[in-house]
Amino acid sequence: AVADIGVTGLAVMGRNLARNLARHSYTVALHNRTHARTVSLVEEHGDDGTFVPSERLEDFVASLKRPRTVIIMVKAGAATDAVIDELVPLLEEGDIVVDAGNAHFPDTIRREEALRAQGLHFVGTGVSGGEEGALNGPSIMPGGTRESYATLGPMLEDISAKVDGVPCCTYVGPGGAGHFVKMVHNGIEYADMQLIAEAYDLLRQGLGASAAEIGDIFAEWNTGDLESFLIEITADVLHHVDAATGSAFVDVVLDQAEQKGTGRWTVQNGLDLGVPITGIAEATFARALSGSVPQREAARGTLPAHTAAWEVKDRDVFVEDVRRALYASKVVAYSQGFDQIAAASAEYGWDIDRGAMARIWRGGCIIRARFLNRITEAYERDAGLPLLLADPYFTDAVADGLQSWRRIVAGAAQNGVPTPAFSSSLAYYDGVRAERLPAALIQAQRDFFGAHTYRRVDSGGVFHTEWSGDRSETQES
Ligand code: 2AM
């Protein structure tokens, strides 16, 4: 046995992870259901390092040093279970099985429990950064036992992206914590993308600017607080010209956004935990609306707007307003996502360090951004921070842009520009900071029609009013 680690499943992600490991001087055992893929990897990239290819899974396992560490990189779902079932009988106590695919975290919880019962470590890990990241340094979010991290962690940290020399990989927490955090990362990514898309639309409709002009604005924004991979690629996309038509590329792309499901999972979990992740939810529904073809056809040209053309008086003020509104909305979306991580951590017993999550998202992944340093700093100031927005840095940053934010959301409403994520983020901001909410009325209504009871502001206990009788109040025991 000579290999430090093995990879089974050598489609592009597995292939690139294996190459990345080999380039970091690990001896990498290789296996794939269809052996031809294994052969071609060694043929094409053998000079990346030392590979130990095996056609049979038994030989693959036998080529691994103990504790054996096997990364599975196959399609999420049934294929993952099939590979685990084949692999497990060949392993021994203390071996580590890593699922680096895009598993839904409840599956990871289930698999981890099953393998733990057999004396094996099961690590569900998020890997973000796509093909390019897998090869050159992804953000890696491993769950499972802390014990397994002692063996696995250093290898994953080696191949992860680095920011200021710090690896974008850390132990996330037990069970399904790694895949959970990856899921929320993707949810936040949905929100971030939707916010950028709304900013683009506001600039387009407000200024009547061309795609390329807006690309210039995004490129400028990328030199400040908003600096991020997503802003950078937005500028790039907006400058791109379609070769076939000579039009701005963005103008020839069909405006129906698709999704693979991680946004939906995030929103479903937000509902399960009762965490208002409105930014992510609006972003997910905005994609759904864009794809609601019959509804859009029925509405287009039929539903009136009753708006006049948007007259922006001062271009520079407007651009700055949009920028500040975008930043504030982004803080809300991230604040909500980190609330979801905290809620899940408490619910499932994961003890996730939110500051560390922001730190490992600074590089390698899609939401990588300078801004994440600020989040890490906020949780360093207060690890138990109940609301990211309430950290002094973020409170001030959002307060600075508050007037801009209100002007933009009001202007969008007045001029008929759909900004679900900007608007709902502002509504969240005003809701969460409210002295009193009309939830009091909701409680009274619930007690009226369903005797659901309510609590009072002036005394403890639970009360019910006899609405259909004499309206006397009784205290429930
Ligand atoms: P293949 O090359 O034999 O198709 C992405 O589909 C990767 O997952 C591929 O490496 C693929 O192997 C592998 N894969 C998909 N389903 C699988 C299964 N049920 N068992 C083993 N590998 C599987």
TrEMBL record:
The alphabetized UniProt keywords are: Gluconate utilization, NADP, Oxidoreductase, Pentose shunt
One annotated GO molecular function is: NADP binding
The record ties this protein, via SMART domains, to: 6PGD
So what does this thing catalyse? 6-phospho-D-gluconate + NADP(+) = D-ribulose 5-phosphate + CO2 + NADPH
- Where's the 6-phosphogluconate dehydrogenase C-terminal domain? 178-468
Which residues hold NADP(+)?
Answer: 9-14, 32-34, 74-76, 102
The kind of enzyme this is, by top-level EC class, is oxidoreductase
A Gene Ontology annotation in the biological process aspect, one of them, is:
D-gluconate metabolic process
Active site location: 182 (proton acceptor), 189 (proton donor)
Q: What is its EC number?
A: 1.1.1.44
Q: Kindly list the positions annotated as binding substrate.
A: 102, 128-130, 185-186, 190, 260, 287, 446, 452
Pathway per its UniProt entry is:
Carbohydrate degradation; pentose phosphate pathway; D-ribulose 5-phosphate from D-glucose 6-phosphate (oxidative stage): step 3/3
- The domain of life is Bacteria
Family to which this protein belongs: Belongs to the 6-phosphogluconate dehydrogenase family.
The protein's assembly and partners: Homodimer.
What this chain does, per the entry, is described as:
Catalyzes the oxidative decarboxylation of 6-phosphogluconate to ribulose 5-phosphate and CO(2), with concomitant reduction of NADP to NADPH.
Question: Cross-referenced PANTHER family, in alphabetical order?
Answer: 6-PHOSPHOGLUCONATE DEHYDROGENASE
Descriptive protein name: 6-phosphogluconate dehydrogenase, decarboxylating
Species: Beutenbergia cavernae (strain ATCC BAA-8 / DSM 12333 / CCUG 43141 / JCM 11478 / NBRC 16432 / NCIMB 13614 / HKI 0122)
